[in-house]
Amino acid sequence: MKRPAESYLENESIPYESRAFPPWTEKGAASVARALGFREHQMVKTLIFESGKGERVLVMVGGDRSAVSGHLKKAIGDRNIKMARPEVVEEVTGYVIGSVPPFHWQPTTFRSFVDRALMDEPVLGVGAGEWGHKILITPQNLVRAARAIVVNLTDRERPVTVE
Q1: What does the alpha-carbon distance between residue 41 and residue 8 come to, in Å, rounded to a whole number?
Q2: Is 159 left (phi over 0), alpha (psi -120 to 50) or beta?
Q3: CA distance 90 to 74
C-alpha cells in the first residue's frame, strides 16, 4: 500500500525509492542514517517554522546541521520566527514530528526552503509519513517535489541567497 507522499511522487512522475528501517530504531537523523547505511547529513530534517506574521514555512536541512538563525530570518523575511510546536506541526502537515514528508500536503502558496548544502548529495532521505519508512530522492527531485527555494541556511561564511 502506497503512502500519500509516495502516491504524490508517482502522480508527478518524480523518481524515488522507498526504504524501510526497523521501527524500533531510536529517533533522530543519526540513528536512521546508521540503520539505512547513509551519512547523517543525507537524512533531511523537515522543520516547520512560524513567522511573526503568522506564516508557516517548511525548512529542510541535513540531519547533522542546524539553520543559522540570521540566515533563516533573512530567507523567510521576518525577524520574529520560532519553531512550531509539535501540535502545530501536526495541524499544518497532518503528520507527527519524525515522519513529516516535505511534499504533498502543502497548499500552492506554502513556502518551502531547502539548504544549499544538500544539493551536492547524490541522494537524500526524507520522511515518508510513517516512522520506519524513508523516501530516498535526489536533491533536484526534492526541490521539484516540494516546490522548494534553495538557500544557504547553514554556512555562516556565505550569503543566504544562492547565485
Answers
A1: 25
A2: beta
A3: 26
CA angle 24, 28, 135 (to 5 degrees): 80
Class of the CATH-defined domain 4-151:
alpha beta
pLDDT-derived band of residue 162, with 50, 70 and 90 as boundaries? low
Q: Spell out the domain ranges in the chain.
A: 4-151
Candidates 24, 15, 8, 4; CA nearest to 124 is: 15
Residue 115 has pLDDT above 80, yes or no: yes
pLDDT tens for each residue of 39-66: 999 999 999 999 999 999 999 999 999 9
Contact yes or no for 124/44 (Cβ under 8 A): yes
